[in-house]
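Support case: user asked for a sample of complex input and structure output to validate their parser. Sending the pair below.
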Amino acid sequence: MKYGIVVNTGPYTHQASDTAYHFTAAALGKGHEVFRVFFYHDGVNNGTRLGVPPQDDRNLPEKWSSLAQQHDLDLVVCVAAAQRRGLLDADEAKRHGKDADNIAPGFRISGLGQLIEAGIEADRLVVFGD
Amino acid sequence: MIKKFLYLNRKAPYGTVYALESLEVVLIGAAFDQDVSLAFIDDGVYQLTKAQNTDDIGMKNFSPTYRALGDYDVNKIFVDGGSLEERGLTVDDLLPLTYEDEDDDWAEKPSIRVVDSGELAALIDEQDVIFSF
């Protein structure tokens, strides 16, 4: 099965990002293909590398980055949603005159067309978060 | 490959960002030439109400953008009649969304269809991809 994953809520306030992560890891573990994980709305906050959760708590952005590295997983953050919420890569930060970027390794910023494409290409598009 | 995409809009236009960011997906998605439908249920029906005025809440009134949907060939807009009724609204309270039908000499036609929950269930059932916002 070829899955597309959409994450619509940020980490920590809601458990949906954790569930999305576990679903994605389990699908890959079972040998399924994950075409793309697309982060929208507050879901883009899964892609910051600057979060510092307590040591006994999970670090969700790090888990996504690590999963991406292991499985060559495509983690895409919506550019419009990211800009509103201050999630920037080096190019975006430079373009908008900001003094820092914060995107985590393995994530990339792109447009909503990537979400539609995931809907077209995947056998199942699974949405997490409200 | 053409798939059937349904955007299910459930929330009021202001109060959360979902309505606005749903509309942004619809507009970008229109470029992909898929079979697109929009459905408005629950407080989502408020997204289409006429004469929205956001001056006092400091939010952008993005409701005029819905009028452009016809130009993007997004002309299958379903509104849940029960949700309208529960809120004391009728179709006359909604923006008069229209499109030009290329198969009928570009006649201007209404895009909005009021449906009941059974018709909505059938609509949802026939989709390939559902975005629920």
